[in-house]
């Protein structure tokens, strides 16, 4: 497994850029991908319901097929792996398992566990749109964390929201409970990313009270 680099968080944030040209000969091990994902799942989520799921695609022929679904984006085929982040519209169904695990670990007591489970009663009463928005937001938090972890380990990434999500769901037999949120290419850059600028803070800070 690759040695984790020792850089400050600030350095990693500043060095991370969206890379679209990848070395197609470079392969990341399955163990490394799983380790990155495990660390990424430490991201926060609404009620700690962790409404994210993953499909990891490294098979070359499958990536070629996915490229057409992703509007012919080159990085889909040349990156070492494509991580599809899915959202869970029925995240509340995981509540008992998650809170039960916290009870077993000694982090909470039985009373707290029951209170947390009862607190998830809001979710099944909410509309599907509301639940998808919650899951998408949480999947976004995880995705950013995943990309920073990958960069810290010496890998490059780019997120792709531009793909046919219905075709993706059909191709990979995604259960109705889940929905595609974003694709993340992970690999080694074959060419540097384009430099970009950011709007001045004064342009984006509406108020400071």
UniProtKB/TrEMBL annotation:
<dbReference type="GO" id="GO:0016491">
    <property type="term" value="F:oxidoreductase activity"/>
</dbReference>
<keyword id="KW-0560">Oxidoreductase</keyword>
<comment type="similarity">
    <text>Belongs to the nitroreductase family.</text>
</comment>
<dbReference type="InterPro" id="IPR029479">
    <property type="entry name" value="Nitroreductase"/>
</dbReference>
<feature type="domain" description="Nitroreductase">
    <location>
        <begin position="13"/>
        <end position="188"/>
    </location>
</feature>
<protein>
    <submittedName>
        <fullName>NAD(P)H nitroreductase</fullName>
    </submittedName>
</protein>
<dbReference type="Pfam" id="PF00881">
    <property type="entry name" value="Nitroreductase"/>
</dbReference>
<dbReference type="InterPro" id="IPR000415">
    <property type="entry name" value="Nitroreductase-like"/>
</dbReference>
């Amino acid at each position: 497994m690759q040695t984790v680099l020792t850089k400050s968080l600030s350095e990693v944030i500043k060095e991370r850029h969206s890379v679209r040209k990848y070395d197609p000969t470079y392969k990341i091990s399955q163990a490394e991908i799983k380790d990155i994902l495990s660390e990424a799942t430490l991201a926060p989520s609404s009620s700690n319901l962790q409404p994210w799921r993953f499909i990891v695609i490294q098979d070359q022929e499958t990536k070629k097929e996915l490229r057409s679904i992703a509007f012919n984006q080159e990085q889909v085929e040349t990156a070492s792996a494509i991580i599809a982040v899915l959202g869970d519209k029925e995240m509340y169904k995981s509540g008992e398992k998650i809170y039960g695990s916290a009870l077993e670990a000694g982090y909470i007591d039985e009373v707290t566990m029951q209170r947390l489970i009862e607190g998830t009663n809001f979710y099944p009463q909410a509309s599907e749109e509301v639940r998808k928005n919650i899951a998408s937001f949480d999947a976004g938090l995880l995705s950013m964390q995943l990309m920073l972890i990958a960069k810290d380990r010496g890998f490059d990434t780019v997120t792709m929201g531009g793909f046919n999500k219905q075709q993706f769901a059909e191709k990979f037999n995604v259960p109705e409970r889940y929905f595609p949120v974003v694709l993340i290419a992970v690999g080694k850059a074959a060419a540097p990313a384009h430099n970009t600028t950011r709007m001045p803070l004064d342009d984006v800070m509406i108020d400071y009270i």
